[in-house]
Known about the structure:
Layout: H1 15-18, H2 44-55, H3 60-72, H4 74-88, E1 92-95, H5 101-114, H6 117-126, H7 129-132, E2 135-144, E3 147-156, E4 161-163, E5 171-174, H8 186-190, E6 194-196, E7 202-205, H9 219-243, E8 248-252, H10 259-274, E9 285-289, H11 300-317, H12 331-369, E10 377-380, H13 388-400, H14 407-413, H15 440-443, H16 448-462, H17 464-481, H18 485-495, H19 502-522
Antiparallel strand pairs: 1-10, 2-3, 2-7, 4-5, 5-6, 8-9
Amino acid sequence: MASKLLDQYGRPVEDALLREEIASAQIAGLRTVWQDPVATTLMPSTLAALLHDAELGEATAYLTLAEEMEEREPHYSSVMRVRKLAVSSLPVAIESPSDDPEDVKITDEVRELFARPSAGELISDLLDAIGKGYSVCEIMWERSLSRWEPREYIWRDPRFFRFDRVEGRELRMLTLNAPPAAADDLHAMLDPASVPLAPYKFVVHRPRMKSGLQIRGGLARLAAASYLCKSFTLRDWMAFAEVYGMPLRIGKYGPQATDKDIRTLINAVANLGTDAAAVIPQSMTLELVAAASSAGGEALFEKLATWLDHQTSKAVLGQTMTSDSGHSSGLAQAKVHDEVRNDIRADDAVKLATTLDRDLIRAYVDLNHGPRKRYPSASFSIEEPEDLVSLAKALPPFLDRGLKVEASAIRDKFKLAEPAPDAELLTAASSPAPAPAGNRLALHRSGPAADQLDEMEDEALDGWQKLADPVLEPVKALVQRARSMKELKAGLAQLAGQLDTSALADQLARYMFEAHMLGDATDQD
């Protein structure tokens, strides 16, 4: 009996189709993987034509070019992998819509789906939409233990689909077996060779990276012009390298030379470059003219190719720092560019999670538990890199001022394990770095020298009151009789030249001299 379940678009779900493979390739038909190459004969006029055709709904040539760009151009392939891996390498988190026991149970089932290796492959395949504008994976369902579960996710060639002819928003599957169009189905009448996608059979990722037609949103369209220019650059560069530094070969023939003589001379000039030998009639001459030196001319092609690579990096990654070596900008600027790329990664992750929520999680929950008001949701855990060097430098001053920090928290940040009871531990150095000889005794207060220094300190403190009184008593008296701050400042200025500091100064000088001599006498360095 046909299922009465409706998908998120109000279309009835047919149980029989859930198990069938309905978007497979065909040997003879519209869904074929065998397409003529595009990149090998790409010219500016060809590129303009295929981009225009894609806008009108015929995107086969454009999608073929997008595929070949990732196969033929190393830099574009590299930055596209970086863009995709930035998301596919993130762990997936499934959150329950509430603490209700039934919601929690359903969420645990969804977590089991994403714990399987096939879920990681699905995510990687869906990210193909970044380059082409959309990506489609067919879900092969199976029913086991009274539950519908995805047995396999099959990536489908994007050339098996195209957008509707009316608004360019609905993705439809190409087929020769489309049913007759209904009178009110404008999409089917305009494109009788396509049908709507079957409910709950496909996960369709269409990241909105720009407003407008979805087919114009893929990064391959943005990078296609740079790809074309670079292909011309590399071709000319190879031709230039083939003759660079070789002398110019000039053949001269007289006015009596026949066509046969001229052809003989042409062959001789050509053979002179490959065989370094040639035979010509005596009436003809060959000259080798040294190649003119053009300073920096050999770097022209490399600079152009590098510049084009930079444009591709900006288009795909949003920056050039992490993809192009040899950049001379500082580390601080590179960190800023990394943050831009993190923004792009976060946006890609949010869009992909939305696709998984709509086309996979909802389908699974509806098939097994019926439609609900709330569904589990997927998200990708993005941890921003923490500057541990700055943390290590900033923490000690706060610890010195009494800040209490849990040791396990610091170990977790630095990914350090809890030491075992019998483990050999790293400890701080037993003494600071060597100081100048005059100060070394005060810093290293250990051994006999330290004992003598302690005795000198005790002796000096015993009589400090008697030495300080001649200096402090006049000041105390002045403070007691002064009636204002102005009067106190004036009195201090008068006392400055009257205070008897000679005894205190002599005592300090004597002890400092003795400590200095003791330090020199006990210095082992």
